[in-house]
């Protein structure tokens, strides 16, 4: 993955299959310490099952999870549930009480403050919104001072301000521990994750660094915004550049597709010159993780 050091967690050929055939099948990847690894995939891909096995909440049918002896793994599900009569402070204190205390662990007050809940520390969780419950689940996991913090859809119920707070929290905590997370908000995954694990239908599609997977999912195609209509006909361009795919959605916008990035490196500038029109902007299409992810899953489905 992103570092050459020995991984903190090694997931080796893990399978967990249910009677209807769903589950996860033969999944292998490594997770490094002090990094963020995101597991992404369509709904029903098996992300939650995978996290449950890594956290020890479900047994694997085969394969193994390797981590240092005594390593503490904390898991926050996508919809945390707590006894309704407890206060937020009591929830976090209970979480801390079930684990052996550590000298450098934060206390309940600090965990609640980190997750933006200090003002409601003494409120009953029966009155909490789903977003507040999500934050409380993170606080209850964080107070354990785990080596591995697993967050299943930590942003699913949060408003934009809450998502920004969780991004900040994850960025801070990656300095102290390994974080495994899943999210459908791929723009945030792109900002946070060092490494990606892509799964579909319970199987590993690809794993690697975020930059490598972004690059693998991109197509050699550019959008070109023009200051005036091109004076070169499509026929002239296609004769001069036989491998070029060119379209004009409007007179002021054209798309250029090449058979490879190597071909684009050689021909992109000559094609722009051949348009004989002022070029205002040249943009690589599908630059973000959403587009790369869609292409990776689409390619997997066509195999």
TrEMBL record:
Family from the record: Belongs to the ABC transporter superfamily.
Transmembrane segments annotated in the record for this chain: none
Signal peptide coordinates: none
Species per Swiss-Prot/TrEMBL record: Microbacterium murale
Keyword terms, alphabetized: ATP-binding, Nucleotide-binding, Transport
PANTHER family: ABC TRANSPORTER, ATP-BINDING PROTEIN
Gene Ontology terms for molecular function: ATP binding
Pfam families: ABC_tran
Residue stretches in coiled coil: none
Name of this protein: ABC-2 type transport system ATP-binding protein
Keyword set includes ATP-binding: yes
Domain ABC transporter, residue spans: 9-226
């Amino acid at each position: 993955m992103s570092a050459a050091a020995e991984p903190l967690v090694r997931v080796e050929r893990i399978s967990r299959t249910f009677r209807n055939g769903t589950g996860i099948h033969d999944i292998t990847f490594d997770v490094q310490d002090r990094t963020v690894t995101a597991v992404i995939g369509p709904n029903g891909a098996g992300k939650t099952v995978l996290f449950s096995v890594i956290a020890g909440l479900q047994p694997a049918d085969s394969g193994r999870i390797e981590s240092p002896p005594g390593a503490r793994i904390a898991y926050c599900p996508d919809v945390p549930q707590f006894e309704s009569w407890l206060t937020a402070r009591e929830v976090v204190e209970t979480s801390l009480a079930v684990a052996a205390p550590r000298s450098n662990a934060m206390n309940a007050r600090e965990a609640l403050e980190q997750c933006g809940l200090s003002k409601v520390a003494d409120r009953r969780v029966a009155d909490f919104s789903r977003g507040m419950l999500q934050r409380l689940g993170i606080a209850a996991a964080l107070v354990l001072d785990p080596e591995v913090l697993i967050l299943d859809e930590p942003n699913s119920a949060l408003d934009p301000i809450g998502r920004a707070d969780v991004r900040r929290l994850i960025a801070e905590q990656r300095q102290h521990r390994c974080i495994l997370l899943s999210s459908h908000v791929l723009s945030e995954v792109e900002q946070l994750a060092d490494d990606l694990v892509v799964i579909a239908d319970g199987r590993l599609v690809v794993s690697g660094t975020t930059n490598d997977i972004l690059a693998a999912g991109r197509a050699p195609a550019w959008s070109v915004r023009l200051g005036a209509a091109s004076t070169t006909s499509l026929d002239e361009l296609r004769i001069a550049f036989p491998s070029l795919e060119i379209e004009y959605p409007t007179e002021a916008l054209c798309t250029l597709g090449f058979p490879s990035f190597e071909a684009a490196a050689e021909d992109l500038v000559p094609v722009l010159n051949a348009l004989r029109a002022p070029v205002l902007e040249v943009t690589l299409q599908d630059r973000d993780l959403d587009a790369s992810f869609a292409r990776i899953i689409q390619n997997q489905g066509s195999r």
